[in-house]
Structure formats: C-alpha cells, structure tokens
Amino acid sequence: MKYLERYLRRVFTVDLRALALMRIWLASIVLLDLAIRATDMEAHYSNMGVLPLHVLHQHLWLPQFFSLHALSGLWQFQLLLFILAACFAFCLLLGYKTRLATVATWLLLLSLQNRNPLIEQGGDDLLRMLLFWGIFLPWGRFYSADAVRERTLETAAPATQYFSAATAAYILQVGLVYFCTALLKDSPEWRTDGTALYYALSLDQILMPLGRLIYPYPELLRTLTLITWYTELLLPFLLLIPFYTYFFRMVVVVVLVGFHIGISLTLFVGLFYLINIASVTGLLPAPVMDWLDRRVLRSFRRPKLGQFKQIFNKLSSPVSINVQVNWQKPGIPKHALSPVRNGVVVALLFYCIWWNFSTTNLPLHKIPDSSRWLGYLLRLDQHWGMFSPVVFKDDGWYVLEGYTSNGTNIDLNQEGKEVNYSKPASVVSLFKNDRWRKYSENYLFVHNAHIRPYYCNYLVRRWNEAHPTQPIRQLEVIYMKEPSLPDYELAVPTREVLCTCANAPE
Predict the structure, then answer these.
(1) Which of 95, 132, 164, 497 is most buried, by CB atoms within 10 Å?
(2) Of 133, 121, 125, 158, residue with least CA distance to 143
(3) Is 162 helix (H, G, I), strand (E, B) or coil?
C-alpha cells in the first residue's frame, strides 16, 4: 500500500495554479458558449423554434433527465436562465464563491444541454465533465477572489501541490477521451488504409482553408491519419508514468495543444478545440506555473491590489449568518482530505471508466441498463465517437427553396436569391455557427424525421415576418447529396426533398 500510495501521488498530484488557470479558461468558454447560443434563443430553446417541448419529451427525453430550461417554452424564460448562467460563470471566472459557482455553472450547463440534444457535440460532453470534476477540486485557491480574501488571514505562502481522488478523476478523464475514441475507431480507414482524414476533408460542410490546402496530397493525409490514431491510443499512457512526470505531462500538453490547433485550422468544429485545449491546462507542471506566475499571472496574487480586493468585499451579502463547526480546515496533506468526498469521487470515477469501456468493443462486462440511470441523471454518460468507427460520408449542402406568391423561387439559404442548385463556393459558410451545422447533420438522419416539419415551419415564419413584402407560400428543405467517394472521385449530386411545408392562409 505504501508503494501504491507513492505511485498515485506521483502520477496524480497537480499544481493548484494550473487548476486555477483551467477554471478561468473553462468559465470563459462557458460565457462564450452562452453568447453564441443566445443568438438562437428562440430557434433552439423555445416552442416557437425547431424543437418544441412536446417534441423533446416525446422523442428525445429520458425519465432521468433534468432541465430547468424545459420548464417553459417561452424565450423570455430562457433569457432569464441564460442571464443566471452567465452570472454564475462570471463568478467562476473570478473565483468568487468558487464551489457554489462551479456547482451552479455545471447544473445550468447540464440543464441547457438537455433542452436541445440535437445541437450538442463531443466538446460539450467534455466541458460538462470537467465542470463536474471541478466541483470536487479546490481550483479557487489561486487567481481568485476567494484567494484574495483568504490571503489576509494567512501568513505562510500557500502550498501549490495537491493530490486527491478528484485530481485522479480529472487526469483519467482527459486520458479516457483520447484512449476511448481510438478504440472506437476500429475501421480500416483509421487503422490500416489511412483514408479517414481524406474522407473527413472531403466533407465540404466542415472543410476549413488549411484542410483545403492539404487535401490534394493523399500520402500526407494517410500519414496524418495513422499519426492521429496512434497518438490518441498511446499518448494517454504518458500520464501514468511515475517518473519524469513533469516532462511527460508537458509532452502531452504540447502534443494535444498542437493537435487541436491543427484540427481547428482544417475542420469547422466550433468550440471543440478550445474545450480540449482547456482540458489539458490543469496538467501544467510546477516549473511552468512558476514561470507563468512570475511573468504573466503575478498581478493576480499581489495583496496590494486593493481595488481588486475591494470589489469582492462589496459583493458580500448584507445578511451575516454565524455558524460555528468544530472541524479543521481541509488542507493538502493526506490526513486532512475528506474520506467521504474521496469515496464518492472514487465510486463515480469507476462508474465513468466502466461506462467508457462499455462503449467500446473491449471484451469486458458491459454496464447493465439497470445501472445507467445514474449516468443519465448526472450526465456522466460519455461516448467519444468523433469520426468513428468510420467518417460520415453523406456530404452535401442545403437548398431552402421558397415559392413566392408571384411565382418566383428563392433560396432562403442564399438570402432570397434565385434558386441555384450548384454547389456554393464555401458550403461551411452557409451555417451561422457550429450549433446549426450540428443540427443540419442530425436533420438528415431518418430516425430524426420527426423534427423536420418544425424546422421547415420555423423558416417560413421567420422569413415572412422579416419580409412582409415578399412572403413565401411554400418551402421545400432540399439536400443536395454528394457522397464522398474514394480516390478523389466526384459524385453527381442528387436532389433529395427532406420536408415540404406551406404557409397557412390568413
């Protein structure tokens, strides 16, 4: 047990300053995510949009799900929840009442994601899980308002190294993302043929400029495909090596930061790359944080920053409740860690590991259906199936053909220009943001056919409200399907009408 404890401490000890940096980054991402989502508040979260509540509950809801956003179909109600979520995320960013802010931010994010699963992607799952483990992490001890208050009561310099079950859960969660996605990529196009990246860059819906630049080079794409798969499969094990820990962690951080920057330059993935980069920030070792602390973040720790301190002193509640409890303040040493909290974290960690491995083809006992309720309740359910087992190949673009009263046909996707079925110069530019791109992808699937009329009617209503002098009486949601073929062959696009709806006469 002594050697096991020593191993665990060497592998799973983190720097509290790195955790604080991750907290700030994640809170900033939550605020950015809320700002992007807020531009489609009516479309994505109200009964006037593409997914009314009765459709959500009928087709996409589980009894274990929780969502405050599903209590009302009014966009005004959603606005209040958005403002509340932004306030808590801002408190998390500043480190004010950090534990409470973390719990509230996670809870409201879970609620928001459950309201419309059709626009969620893998990065959202990771963001949710990082906030969940953050509930058990003391990531408010540095670079925070809480830290400014506590420093006035302390004379010794605060310790920076921290080990607990929560740090193990955080590090293993990061590793599970990449290891499990590699296991799920069990097709020849990933493991032997090396054509996965070719097919990914064949998707005009997500193709970015750098991807267009490297697309014509098949050998380069094959090499990059195999490098990607082996990196995802083997890199997480560097986090478990008990010697030269700082070195191996920096290797992981540098490789994954470069990996996700490369993804963002080649493929349109929304906030996915920012979330993944933020996830490894907490792995930064002490020497790196010492340098950052001296050169970049030192101002956040200066006690003489009276203005910063006074701001949060003014935020104190006018009501004071004095509660005296006979307990010692938990610290970094092992004897001061809460056994109950660690026990809960360990149990949840093993549950998450079991869930992750149950999604793969490993010859292990799968998690039973009777035990999945906890995963759905706390949204610990995870499936890191990015481009797996094969890359999506039904590429194409949308034409929203509206029939006006004067007999002309216009494309709502081209701001009312005359219908043209030829491929746009940039298909990805047709999407307002990655949420709409993900929705359009889910819109194609037959098992989501029930959502098609609501999107169609939403488009008709929004167009006619914005263009009263040029209303449309009928709309066809058309998908110009252009499947990705091997060896740079070009498919002839086919016209598929996914939905037709008519404007109700007045």
Answers:
(1) 95
(2) 158
(3) strand
